[in-house]
Specification:
Helices cover 48% and strands 9% of the residues. It folds into three domains: 95 residues, 2-Layer Sandwich (Double Stranded RNA Binding Domain), CATH 3.30.160; 96 residues, DNA polymerase, domain 1; 183 residues, Intergrase catalytic core (hpI Integrase, Chain A). By secondary structure, the protein is an alpha+beta fold.
Length: 396
Protein backbone atom coordinates (compact mmCIF):
# COMPACT_ATOMS: atom_id res chain seq x y z
CA UNK A 1 0.00 0.00 0.00
CA UNK A 2 1.33 3.39 -1.00
CA UNK A 3 1.99 5.85 1.79
CA UNK A 4 1.40 9.56 1.69
CA UNK A 5 4.41 11.75 2.11
CA UNK A 6 2.45 14.12 4.33
CA UNK A 7 3.39 17.18 2.29
CA UNK A 8 1.23 19.72 0.52
CA UNK A 9 -0.91 18.15 -2.25
CA UNK A 10 0.65 14.84 -1.22
CA UNK A 11 3.76 15.71 -3.22
CA UNK A 12 7.20 14.64 -2.18
CA UNK A 13 9.76 17.28 -1.28
CA UNK A 14 13.54 17.23 -1.66
CA UNK A 15 13.87 17.41 2.13
CA UNK A 16 11.54 14.44 2.62
CA UNK A 17 13.43 12.39 -0.01
CA UNK A 18 16.71 13.05 1.82
CA UNK A 19 15.40 12.35 5.31
CA UNK A 20 12.94 9.47 4.95
CA UNK A 21 14.32 6.14 6.15
CA UNK A 22 11.24 4.08 7.01
CA UNK A 23 10.76 1.27 4.46
CA UNK A 24 7.77 1.72 2.17
CA UNK A 25 6.48 3.30 -1.02
CA UNK A 26 5.84 7.05 -1.00
CA UNK A 27 3.61 8.44 -3.72
CA UNK A 28 4.50 11.77 -5.26
CA UNK A 29 0.85 12.64 -5.93
CA UNK A 30 1.73 14.51 -9.12
CA UNK A 31 -0.57 12.43 -11.35
CA UNK A 32 2.22 10.72 -13.27
CA UNK A 33 2.48 7.51 -11.25
CA UNK A 34 5.77 8.42 -9.61
CA UNK A 35 6.78 7.15 -6.17
CA UNK A 36 9.83 6.69 -4.00
CA UNK A 37 10.56 3.18 -2.76
CA UNK A 38 12.58 2.75 0.42
CA UNK A 39 13.91 -0.76 1.05
CA UNK A 40 14.55 -2.27 4.50
CA UNK A 41 18.26 -1.86 3.75
CA UNK A 42 17.72 1.89 3.49
CA UNK A 43 18.29 1.97 -0.29
CA UNK A 44 16.00 4.33 -2.19
CA UNK A 45 14.66 3.97 -5.73
CA UNK A 46 12.47 6.00 -8.06
CA UNK A 47 9.68 3.95 -9.65
CA UNK A 48 6.90 4.91 -12.03
CA UNK A 49 3.69 2.95 -12.43
CA UNK A 50 2.21 3.44 -15.86
CA UNK A 51 -0.39 1.77 -18.12
CA UNK A 52 0.92 0.77 -21.58
CA UNK A 53 -1.50 -0.88 -24.02
CA UNK A 54 -3.82 -1.79 -21.15
CA UNK A 55 -1.04 -3.39 -19.09
CA UNK A 56 0.49 -2.02 -15.90
CA UNK A 57 4.22 -1.44 -16.09
CA UNK A 58 6.71 -0.38 -13.43
CA UNK A 59 9.67 1.59 -14.72
CA UNK A 60 12.83 2.13 -12.70
CA UNK A 61 14.01 5.74 -12.99
CA UNK A 62 17.21 5.72 -10.95
CA UNK A 63 18.01 6.49 -7.33
CA UNK A 64 18.41 9.61 -5.22
CA UNK A 65 20.55 11.59 -4.77
CA UNK A 66 22.03 10.83 -8.23
CA UNK A 67 18.64 11.37 -9.81
CA UNK A 68 17.06 14.42 -8.21
CA UNK A 69 13.33 14.86 -7.56
CA UNK A 70 13.09 17.55 -10.24
CA UNK A 71 14.85 15.36 -12.84
CA UNK A 72 12.83 12.26 -12.10
CA UNK A 73 9.54 14.19 -12.37
CA UNK A 74 10.65 15.43 -15.79
CA UNK A 75 11.56 11.89 -16.91
CA UNK A 76 8.27 10.49 -15.62
CA UNK A 77 6.30 13.21 -17.40
CA UNK A 78 8.11 12.42 -20.66
CA UNK A 79 7.19 8.73 -20.26
CA UNK A 80 3.57 9.76 -19.79
CA UNK A 81 3.69 11.80 -22.99
CA UNK A 82 5.20 8.83 -24.88
CA UNK A 83 2.38 6.55 -23.74
CA UNK A 84 -0.23 9.04 -24.91
CA UNK A 85 1.55 9.15 -28.28
CA UNK A 86 1.32 5.34 -28.53
CA UNK A 87 4.95 4.57 -27.66
CA UNK A 88 6.15 2.07 -25.06
CA UNK A 89 8.77 3.94 -22.95
CA UNK A 90 10.40 0.71 -21.74
CA UNK A 91 10.79 -0.62 -25.27
CA UNK A 92 12.09 2.74 -26.46
CA UNK A 93 14.73 2.74 -23.72
CA UNK A 94 15.83 -0.79 -24.58
CA UNK A 95 16.13 0.16 -28.24
CA UNK A 96 18.05 3.32 -27.37
CA UNK A 97 20.53 1.29 -25.35
CA UNK A 98 20.93 -1.11 -28.30
CA UNK A 99 21.93 1.66 -30.73
CA UNK A 100 25.76 1.64 -30.88
CA UNK A 101 27.95 4.68 -30.78
CA UNK A 102 29.78 5.64 -33.97
CA UNK A 103 32.99 4.16 -32.55
CA UNK A 104 31.30 0.86 -31.67
CA UNK A 105 29.73 0.72 -35.13
CA UNK A 106 33.07 1.48 -36.79
CA UNK A 107 34.80 -1.41 -35.02
CA UNK A 108 31.88 -3.67 -35.95
CA UNK A 109 32.20 -2.72 -39.63
CA UNK A 110 35.97 -3.14 -39.43
CA UNK A 111 35.68 -6.69 -38.04
CA UNK A 112 33.02 -7.60 -40.61
CA UNK A 113 35.10 -6.40 -43.57
CA UNK A 114 38.62 -7.30 -42.43
CA UNK A 115 38.47 -10.89 -43.76
CA UNK A 116 37.49 -9.59 -47.22
CA UNK A 117 40.25 -6.98 -47.50
CA UNK A 118 43.23 -8.55 -49.25
CA UNK A 119 45.47 -5.63 -48.35
CA UNK A 120 46.36 -5.75 -44.64
CA UNK A 121 47.69 -2.18 -44.80
CA UNK A 122 44.33 -0.91 -46.08
CA UNK A 123 42.51 -2.74 -43.31
CA UNK A 124 44.76 -1.18 -40.66
CA UNK A 125 44.39 2.30 -42.18
CA UNK A 126 40.59 2.01 -42.18
CA UNK A 127 40.36 1.95 -38.40
CA UNK A 128 43.48 4.02 -37.65
CA UNK A 129 42.30 7.04 -39.67
CA UNK A 130 38.87 6.93 -38.02
CA UNK A 131 40.57 6.64 -34.63
CA UNK A 132 42.72 9.69 -35.41
CA UNK A 133 40.21 12.00 -37.09
CA UNK A 134 36.63 10.83 -36.41
CA UNK A 135 36.48 9.24 -32.95
CA UNK A 136 37.60 12.36 -31.02
CA UNK A 137 34.58 14.28 -32.37
CA UNK A 138 31.84 11.78 -33.13
CA UNK A 139 33.05 8.51 -31.60
CA UNK A 140 30.75 8.68 -28.56
CA UNK A 141 27.67 9.88 -30.46
CA UNK A 142 24.93 7.34 -31.00
CA UNK A 143 25.17 6.29 -34.64
CA UNK A 144 21.56 7.40 -35.06
CA UNK A 145 22.48 10.92 -33.92
CA UNK A 146 25.38 11.52 -36.31
CA UNK A 147 24.32 14.32 -38.65
CA UNK A 148 25.84 16.19 -41.59
CA UNK A 149 27.11 18.93 -39.28
CA UNK A 150 29.00 16.37 -37.21
CA UNK A 151 30.76 14.96 -40.28
CA UNK A 152 31.54 18.53 -41.37
CA UNK A 153 33.17 19.14 -37.99
CA UNK A 154 35.39 16.09 -38.52
CA UNK A 155 36.50 16.91 -42.07
CA UNK A 156 36.69 20.70 -42.25
CA UNK A 157 39.95 21.16 -40.27
CA UNK A 158 42.02 19.16 -42.79
CA UNK A 159 39.82 18.93 -45.92
CA UNK A 160 42.04 21.25 -47.98
CA UNK A 161 45.30 20.62 -46.09
CA UNK A 162 45.31 16.82 -46.45
CA UNK A 163 42.87 16.30 -49.32
CA UNK A 164 43.62 12.63 -50.01
CA UNK A 165 43.45 11.68 -46.33
CA UNK A 166 40.25 13.70 -45.90
CA UNK A 167 38.58 11.99 -48.85
CA UNK A 168 39.45 8.59 -47.43
CA UNK A 169 38.13 9.52 -43.99
CA UNK A 170 34.86 10.71 -45.55
CA UNK A 171 34.57 7.45 -47.49
CA UNK A 172 35.27 5.41 -44.36
CA UNK A 173 32.72 7.36 -42.31
CA UNK A 174 30.31 6.68 -45.17
CA UNK A 175 31.03 2.95 -45.01
CA UNK A 176 30.11 2.92 -41.32
CA UNK A 177 26.99 5.03 -41.87
CA UNK A 178 25.79 2.86 -44.77
CA UNK A 179 26.05 -0.16 -42.47
CA UNK A 180 23.98 1.75 -39.88
CA UNK A 181 21.33 2.55 -42.49
CA UNK A 182 21.16 -1.12 -43.46
CA UNK A 183 20.75 -2.04 -39.76
CA UNK A 184 17.87 0.42 -39.39
CA UNK A 185 19.73 2.66 -36.91
CA UNK A 186 19.45 5.74 -39.14
CA UNK A 187 17.79 6.87 -42.35
CA UNK A 188 20.62 8.36 -44.43
CA UNK A 189 24.38 8.64 -44.84
CA UNK A 190 25.51 12.13 -43.73
CA UNK A 191 28.98 11.56 -45.22
CA UNK A 192 27.37 11.55 -48.67
CA UNK A 193 25.30 14.65 -47.97
CA UNK A 194 28.33 16.61 -46.74
CA UNK A 195 30.24 16.32 -50.01
CA UNK A 196 28.61 19.34 -51.67
CA UNK A 197 28.93 21.50 -48.56
CA UNK A 198 32.72 21.18 -48.27
CA UNK A 199 35.07 23.53 -50.15
CA UNK A 200 36.59 22.34 -53.42
CA UNK A 201 39.92 20.63 -53.09
CA UNK A 202 42.87 21.29 -55.33
CA UNK A 203 42.88 18.98 -58.33
CA UNK A 204 46.64 19.12 -58.67
CA UNK A 205 47.80 15.53 -58.51
CA UNK A 206 50.96 14.81 -56.58
CA UNK A 207 53.02 12.39 -58.62
CA UNK A 208 55.65 10.10 -57.16
CA UNK A 209 59.10 11.65 -57.44
CA UNK A 210 61.08 10.04 -60.23
CA UNK A 211 64.58 10.34 -61.67
CA UNK A 212 65.05 11.16 -65.33
CA UNK A 213 65.88 7.89 -67.05
CA UNK A 214 69.38 9.22 -67.84
CA UNK A 215 70.10 9.33 -64.07
CA UNK A 216 68.97 5.80 -63.24
CA UNK A 217 72.24 4.10 -64.26
CA UNK A 218 74.12 6.43 -61.91
CA UNK A 219 71.69 5.56 -59.14
CA UNK A 220 72.30 1.84 -59.66
CA UNK A 221 76.07 2.42 -59.53
CA UNK A 222 75.65 4.30 -56.24
CA UNK A 223 73.48 1.49 -54.86
CA UNK A 224 76.08 -1.14 -55.75
CA UNK A 225 78.90 0.79 -54.06
CA UNK A 226 76.89 1.68 -50.94
CA UNK A 227 77.29 0.09 -47.52
CA UNK A 228 73.75 -1.29 -47.57
CA UNK A 229 73.09 -4.99 -47.10
CA UNK A 230 73.64 -7.18 -50.16
CA UNK A 231 70.01 -8.33 -50.22
CA UNK A 232 68.75 -4.74 -50.14
CA UNK A 233 71.05 -3.72 -53.00
CA UNK A 234 70.06 -6.71 -55.12
CA UNK A 235 66.35 -6.18 -54.48
CA UNK A 236 66.49 -2.52 -55.47
CA UNK A 237 68.41 -3.18 -58.69
CA UNK A 238 66.04 -6.05 -59.55
CA UNK A 239 63.10 -3.68 -58.98
CA UNK A 240 64.56 -1.14 -61.41
CA UNK A 241 65.39 -3.77 -64.06
CA UNK A 242 61.91 -5.31 -63.99
CA UNK A 243 59.94 -2.03 -63.50
CA UNK A 244 57.97 -3.83 -60.79
CA UNK A 245 56.26 -2.45 -57.71
CA UNK A 246 57.96 -2.59 -54.33
CA UNK A 247 55.51 -5.08 -52.81
CA UNK A 248 55.85 -7.43 -55.77
CA UNK A 249 59.64 -7.48 -55.35
CA UNK A 250 59.79 -7.72 -51.57
CA UNK A 251 57.36 -10.64 -51.51
CA UNK A 252 58.83 -12.47 -54.50
CA UNK A 253 59.21 -16.22 -53.83
CA UNK A 254 61.55 -18.74 -55.38
CA UNK A 255 58.72 -20.88 -56.73
CA UNK A 256 57.70 -17.93 -58.94
CA UNK A 257 61.05 -17.95 -60.75
CA UNK A 258 61.56 -20.11 -63.86
CA UNK A 259 64.96 -19.81 -65.48
CA UNK A 260 64.31 -22.66 -67.92
CA UNK A 261 63.54 -21.93 -71.58
CA UNK A 262 60.78 -23.96 -73.24
CA UNK A 263 58.40 -23.68 -76.20
CA UNK A 264 55.83 -22.22 -73.81
CA UNK A 265 58.27 -19.68 -72.43
CA UNK A 266 60.96 -18.43 -74.84
CA UNK A 267 62.92 -16.81 -72.01
CA UNK A 268 63.47 -17.01 -68.24
CA UNK A 269 60.50 -15.45 -66.42
CA UNK A 270 59.22 -14.35 -63.04
CA UNK A 271 55.51 -15.14 -62.64
CA UNK A 272 53.81 -12.92 -60.07
CA UNK A 273 50.52 -14.41 -58.78
CA UNK A 274 47.31 -12.44 -59.12
CA UNK A 275 46.93 -12.07 -55.34
CA UNK A 276 49.98 -9.78 -55.19
CA UNK A 277 49.17 -7.69 -58.24
CA UNK A 278 47.33 -4.39 -57.99
CA UNK A 279 44.95 -5.35 -60.82
CA UNK A 280 44.49 -8.85 -59.33
CA UNK A 281 45.71 -10.50 -62.54
CA UNK A 282 48.76 -12.76 -62.76
CA UNK A 283 51.73 -11.03 -64.37
CA UNK A 284 54.69 -12.61 -66.15
CA UNK A 285 57.97 -10.68 -66.28
CA UNK A 286 60.61 -11.64 -68.88
CA UNK A 287 64.03 -11.50 -67.23
CA UNK A 288 67.07 -9.88 -68.85
CA UNK A 289 70.51 -11.37 -68.24
CA UNK A 290 71.41 -8.94 -65.45
CA UNK A 291 68.21 -9.84 -63.56
CA UNK A 292 69.09 -13.52 -63.87
CA UNK A 293 72.57 -12.80 -62.48
CA UNK A 294 70.97 -11.00 -59.52
CA UNK A 295 68.77 -14.04 -58.82
CA UNK A 296 71.77 -16.38 -58.89
CA UNK A 297 73.59 -14.09 -56.46
CA UNK A 298 70.49 -13.86 -54.23
CA UNK A 299 70.22 -17.66 -54.16
CA UNK A 300 73.69 -17.80 -52.64
CA UNK A 301 72.57 -15.41 -49.89
CA UNK A 302 69.30 -17.25 -49.20
CA UNK A 303 68.33 -17.77 -45.56
CA UNK A 304 66.41 -20.89 -46.51
CA UNK A 305 63.04 -19.13 -46.57
CA UNK A 306 60.70 -18.91 -49.55
CA UNK A 307 61.56 -15.25 -50.20
CA UNK A 308 64.02 -14.24 -52.92
CA UNK A 309 64.93 -11.06 -51.01
CA UNK A 310 64.33 -11.83 -47.32
CA UNK A 311 64.52 -9.27 -44.53
CA UNK A 312 66.96 -9.35 -41.63
CA UNK A 313 64.57 -11.49 -39.55
CA UNK A 314 64.21 -15.14 -40.52
CA UNK A 315 61.12 -15.69 -42.66
CA UNK A 316 60.30 -11.97 -42.90
CA UNK A 317 60.31 -9.80 -46.03
CA UNK A 318 62.25 -6.59 -46.56
CA UNK A 319 60.34 -3.50 -45.49
CA UNK A 320 59.33 -0.88 -48.04
CA UNK A 321 61.09 1.72 -45.90
CA UNK A 322 64.41 -0.13 -46.30
CA UNK A 323 64.41 0.44 -50.06
CA UNK A 324 63.15 4.02 -49.88
CA UNK A 325 65.65 4.93 -47.17
CA UNK A 326 68.60 3.71 -49.23
CA UNK A 327 67.62 5.81 -52.26
CA UNK A 328 67.24 8.92 -50.10
CA UNK A 329 70.47 8.29 -48.18
CA UNK A 330 72.38 8.13 -51.44
CA UNK A 331 71.15 11.65 -52.27
CA UNK A 332 68.59 10.83 -54.96
CA UNK A 333 65.32 12.78 -54.75
CA UNK A 334 63.11 9.94 -55.91
CA UNK A 335 60.54 7.47 -54.64
CA UNK A 336 61.03 3.77 -55.23
CA UNK A 337 57.77 3.70 -57.19
CA UNK A 338 59.19 6.48 -59.36
CA UNK A 339 61.55 4.07 -61.15
CA UNK A 340 58.48 2.78 -62.99
CA UNK A 341 57.99 6.32 -64.30
CA UNK A 342 61.64 6.46 -65.35
CA UNK A 343 61.17 3.22 -67.29
CA UNK A 344 57.96 4.44 -68.95
CA UNK A 345 59.50 7.75 -70.02
CA UNK A 346 62.55 5.94 -71.41
CA UNK A 347 60.29 3.60 -73.41
CA UNK A 348 58.37 6.54 -74.85
CA UNK A 349 61.37 8.69 -75.72
CA UNK A 350 64.15 6.24 -76.54
CA UNK A 351 62.45 3.22 -78.15
CA UNK A 352 60.06 2.40 -80.97
CA UNK A 353 57.98 -0.05 -78.98
CA UNK A 354 54.22 0.50 -79.08
CA UNK A 355 52.68 2.06 -75.99
CA UNK A 356 50.79 -1.14 -75.20
CA UNK A 357 54.08 -3.02 -74.78
CA UNK A 358 55.36 -0.73 -72.02
CA UNK A 359 51.89 -0.60 -70.45
CA UNK A 360 51.82 -4.38 -70.29
CA UNK A 361 55.35 -4.39 -68.87
CA UNK A 362 54.05 -2.15 -66.07
CA UNK A 363 51.00 -4.44 -65.61
CA UNK A 364 48.65 -1.53 -66.22
CA UNK A 365 44.98 -2.22 -66.90
CA UNK A 366 43.67 -1.27 -70.35
CA UNK A 367 41.00 1.34 -69.66
CA UNK A 368 39.27 1.08 -73.04
CA UNK A 369 36.87 -1.87 -72.65
CA UNK A 370 36.59 -2.51 -76.39
CA UNK A 371 40.36 -2.53 -76.76
CA UNK A 372 40.77 -4.72 -73.68
CA UNK A 373 38.35 -7.30 -75.12
CA UNK A 374 40.71 -7.94 -78.04
CA UNK A 375 43.96 -7.72 -76.04
CA UNK A 376 44.47 -11.45 -75.48
CA UNK A 377 48.25 -11.62 -76.03
CA UNK A 378 50.73 -10.96 -73.22
CA UNK A 379 53.29 -9.69 -75.79
CA UNK A 380 55.99 -11.75 -74.08
CA UNK A 381 58.37 -11.68 -77.07
CA UNK A 382 58.19 -7.93 -77.48
CA UNK A 383 58.42 -7.36 -73.75
CA UNK A 384 61.52 -9.58 -73.62
CA UNK A 385 63.15 -7.37 -76.26
CA UNK A 386 62.11 -4.24 -74.34
CA UNK A 387 63.43 -5.45 -70.98
CA UNK A 388 66.71 -6.58 -72.58
CA UNK A 389 67.08 -3.15 -74.16
CA UNK A 390 66.29 -1.45 -70.81
CA UNK A 391 68.94 -3.54 -69.07
CA UNK A 392 71.53 -2.70 -71.75
CA UNK A 393 70.67 0.99 -71.43
CA UNK A 394 71.17 0.87 -67.66
CA UNK A 395 74.49 -0.92 -68.14
CA UNK A 396 75.66 2.09 -70.14
Amino acid sequence: MLKKAGTRANKLSALFVRSVSKPGKYHDGSGIGLYLRVDPSGAKFWVQRIMVNGKRRELGLGSPPVTTLANVREAALENKRMVRAGTDPLKAKREARAVPTFEQAAYKVYELNKPTWSNAKHAAQFISTLRTYAFPKIGQLKISDVATGDVMAVLTPFWTIKPETARRVRQRIGTVMKWAVAQGFCDYDPAQSVKEALPKQSKVQKHRKALHYSEVAGCIAAIKSSNAGNTTKLALEFLILTAARSGEIRNACWDEINLEVSPAWPCPVWSVPAARMKAKRAHTVPLPNRAIAILIHAKGLSDGSEFVFPGTSQGKTLSDMTLSKLVKQLGFDADVHGFRTSFKTWAQERTDFANEVSEMALAHTIQNKAEAAYARSDLIEKRKQMMDQWARYLAG
